[in-house]
Amino acid sequence: MIRFECDYSEGAHEAILQRLIATNMEQTVGYSEDPYCESAREKIRAACDCPEAAVHFLVGGTQTNATVISSVLRPHQGVLCAQSGHINVHETGAIEALGHKVLALPQKDGKITAQQVREYTLAHYADSAFEHTVQPGMVYISHPTEMGTLYTLEEMTELSRVCRELGLPLFADGARLGYGLAAGEVTLRDMAKLCDVFYIGGTKCGALFGEAVVISSPALQKDFRYHIKQNGGMLAKGRLLGVQFDTLFTDGLYEKITGNASRQALRIRAAFEKKGIEMFFDSTTNQQFPVLTGQQMDALKEDFSFTYWQKVDENRHAVRFCTSWATKDEHVEKLVAAIEAL
Amino acid sequence: MIRFECDYSEGAHEAILQRLIATNMEQTVGYSEDPYCESAREKIRAACDCPEAAVHFLVGGTQTNATVISSVLRPHQGVLCAQSGHINVHETGAIEALGHKVLALPQKDGKITAQQVREYTLAHYADSAFEHTVQPGMVYISHPTEMGTLYTLEEMTELSRVCRELGLPLFADGARLGYGLAAGEVTLRDMAKLCDVFYIGGTKCGALFGEAVVISSPALQKDFRYHIKQNGGMLAKGRLLGVQFDTLFTDGLYEKITGNASRQALRIRAAFEKKGIEMFFDSTTNQQFPVLTGQQMDALKEDFSFTYWQKVDENRHAVRFCTSWATKDEHVEKLVAAIEAL
Amino acid sequence: MIRFECDYSEGAHEAILQRLIATNMEQTVGYSEDPYCESAREKIRAACDCPEAAVHFLVGGTQTNATVISSVLRPHQGVLCAQSGHINVHETGAIEALGHKVLALPQKDGKITAQQVREYTLAHYADSAFEHTVQPGMVYISHPTEMGTLYTLEEMTELSRVCRELGLPLFADGARLGYGLAAGEVTLRDMAKLCDVFYIGGTKCGALFGEAVVISSPALQKDFRYHIKQNGGMLAKGRLLGVQFDTLFTDGLYEKITGNASRQALRIRAAFEKKGIEMFFDSTTNQQFPVLTGQQMDALKEDFSFTYWQKVDENRHAVRFCTSWATKDEHVEKLVAAIEAL
Amino acid sequence: MIRFECDYSEGAHEAILQRLIATNMEQTVGYSEDPYCESAREKIRAACDCPEAAVHFLVGGTQTNATVISSVLRPHQGVLCAQSGHINVHETGAIEALGHKVLALPQKDGKITAQQVREYTLAHYADSAFEHTVQPGMVYISHPTEMGTLYTLEEMTELSRVCRELGLPLFADGARLGYGLAAGEVTLRDMAKLCDVFYIGGTKCGALFGEAVVISSPALQKDFRYHIKQNGGMLAKGRLLGVQFDTLFTDGLYEKITGNASRQALRIRAAFEKKGIEMFFDSTTNQQFPVLTGQQMDALKEDFSFTYWQKVDENRHAVRFCTSWATKDEHVEKLVAAIEAL
Lengths: 342, 342, 342, 342
Hints:
Number of domains of chain A: 2
Strand content of chain A: 15-25%
Structural class of chain A: alpha/beta
Oligomer: homotetramer
Largest interface: B-C, 53 and 53 residues
CATH topology of the largest domain in chain A: Aspartate Aminotransferase, domain 2
CATH class of the largest domain in chain A: Alpha Beta
CATH architecture of the largest domain in chain A: 3-Layer(aba) Sandwich
Number of helices of chain A: 14
Shape of chain A: globular
Helix content of chain A: 40-55%
């Protein structure tokens, strides 16, 4: 079985593993106050061109989303996000468990627009019963989205502008940010400039695990380590996160290895399209969503794992194929051959 | 200004006020452990034909919804309800503040169906990532709904059957239950038999304030008073609630006085319809939703208060007129005259 | 049975009841936006000599404490209070239910000192693992305390000074504030000046129910009505609270009627002391704590209700007798006679 | 600088690292549903002699405590624990953040007794205002405790008996369980038999990170994976935890490597005692607490890191020295020499 069902099927990139081995028996202080974390923070700040940013390391995405969002909102506030947003559908209500409503907006290709944010917020305050409803307190987006799509620089700039006008911090979930940087026009510097807080995904982009939160807005930086600890994200051996991100941000490794995923994904997409198979979303990143018949699904299932997405019509279903930093040429070649043979 | 904007514009029914005056300087124990509360409980159990029900008195609706729902759910569970449900839109996220996601279902006239509940629940367990999503843990309905509509006995029976089959407690918000009992086919006995827990609204139905929670399911009765206290609903002078509900449930006062509201509402509806004005929902209870032009709204606004509901088309808007136990004939007559003069 | 077990055995003061009757069938808007609430707010601001204060009306004490505290704290913060504080022992964990630890300090006669607050806070920041512990975020006191004692003006001034120095809002629970004003040296103006937020208890001091929150600190005023709604404290017929507090703050009724309680309490205390019975706390307000033998308790129990407090030694127990605005001379005379006959 | 300040200064045991390297590029399914986790579960069940136990893998201790406790308690319940318990003092209020009060009991050497649990619980129900206080809902202990002490088999058996009698699940925090197993009389089988749920610490006992939760009580097993996900503990590359625990539970590695820590700790203790230096707690595990003068602290600080614990008297301070699976003979020898030279 060759796995295309997700982007966390393997361990870590070789360079990271080597670094963990090399430093394994060193003694350092705990809780991310060690020199590796400090070095990684410096490199990330430099890569973001944002010397005043606070950088923190957490273990996983759900934990990071919950920690950031609950650190920003007051109790009567909720977070605006796309209906399809990860916090709205795939985190077992972690945001609500910390007291906040997710204010879901209709999405298009997994994205929401500046106009939607403005309209929702103005409508909130225009309602005579506004105090009986949850106040929008921040905006959450994913880049890339759950559908593999990307915000254009113009879209993200406009979102940022409207959020600042309305006093809503903009938070970007970057669990797959590496794949977005490799395939899109928004750079790490843009992220730091346009978002108030975002994170750089490690788990799905070459690390064993780990997410690097970049808080560019000084107003959101205060006391963040308390929140990490309270939400169970303060790793005792924090230097494991430092070592991994330090490696990823040395010599541009992060963007280098994520480029492989996009390249392989586009090869797979091309194979499907050549076969006349429609793509459910117009994704240029590491997730591709062909629309297959039941027969085609069965044929591919024999040798490849992939994810069921949703029924499209009587006979067809959208499914998801993921590539990653670890995807091998030979695996993609076998998949392409299988697609051609459909 | 004659007020039709809501059903809580006045104080209490005369009989209740007299009873509060008569008992004012009596000394009783606090926290609803007094003889008035005990008497009211007995009368409510009898009216529900449910001798084993636990009956508790709380102050208001949002508090009651939050207390009941948080007492039933485990942390990973959410509550299914209509998109338009009060807990989803008009309680400032009180359910989320206690840790639970509201799982909103598309509504029709404010109602949800047994089929929707079954489909949502089966789809939840059929999803391979079900543990990454919020588990449906109970069902919330309003009777009457926010739109003034009512469940038929058949609809509620079917909902109840499906909920029991799926292990989901069924909870009915009865903030306006009196108006539903007066106008529909579901009786108090039906409520006690079909729901696992529901409440009998006092605030909008003749009392100064107060809601009587009836927990017919023995499984949900344990430790409920702790939950009331924790959620700020344990009134020190609890006998005020006992006196009010004891009066409402003496000689059928509750259903008697709520009948006035329906009668007056239907007069108002008839006046609109006679004028060729469409009703936005087919309500038979104390809330009526005519669709007016801006000009018509302006004309009525001069002497009457009512609530803006939503835009219907370029020129027309749905608005809400409420009657109550306190609505006077002369006020309705003036309104009818004004409608005729539109 | 004559009841001295608490200060909420009766209904409301006659003047309040008359006012509720007189206004009963008036129509007003809901949710405390009516003219009665507005008038009461003005009178309270004037009585506090604090024109910029925000004044809000809630139903009960636990609800008020939870609403105020959760509106002030961020998620990683806790509230400093006396070990014996109401929020720490008698609210079924309502503060924790909203996410915050109660940071209990050793108390003396129910009070905490400025020095304790400073020492705790400095120790918190001096701890190298401070981010692993709950950050002190505000201070809660009761005035009068659970033991009936009062802060002197000097003590409260010093507490206020230290709190401001440390950036900790000072919140006073005034469930029995009327009895404190009647018996102590701290005035309503002092409360408004020294506390950042406090409340004026109605439930125990002449009203049917209701607490008036005074937020003198502008920094804490924003969006408070959302918090009231979310915590179930937004009364639909809010004018009931307005009418009651407007009456209490007309012609100084509040302080007048609470004076009766102190006077009666001191008569009871004098009777115990004359009999050589020790008082467990040195209370000058409406709660008195004689230390009785089992035999004495039994003798008094026949005609009077009172509250068991705690065991003092092998043979003796502290109990509590409460008076209130409603306590009658004849009841106190019977009690005094019974004490003399012990 | 040689570090004795904690037991998480290094990375992982060599055998674990080798296994991670060997399996690094294998493809597996995520979220701990892979064969490595399954194998580790089987081995842990066998080691516990508890075939019906549910075994789950989480990342860190605070997360594990919060997840287990919030999965067990209802909203009005709290968790009994020693005043010095980790959840009470060093988790930034994580338990309260999920809604529950920590009910702290006076501790002796970090331990609580069966009698304390019984007395607290009986006193709770004997209080006439019990519904106004937090209901004890479970018991949390640490084994070893924060002070390095251990429950005897008799103590833990008695605790377990009382907990079952009172219907309170017993939960043991085993962050350092390996060091307890190596030094005490309670075995893994005893843990599984006497506790309803406990965890086997990996982070401090040889793994890079990870804690294995063993839920021996069937009543607490339902839906636990939802709770893990909601609390941010569902590691995407879950097999990393499986690989680590599978290695630790192969050929008794876990108890073998933790034995080193106890052995080294006792050498250090002996050196202090030989010097006439008193130990603050009678610990037989990997944490040792000598009572030093300021001068002695300064002398040792030059070459060794250790943790300040508390002031003991005018001139003396308790400090903590930790050993671990990774502590080297040569480091201990240098420390012993330095102690001798004091």
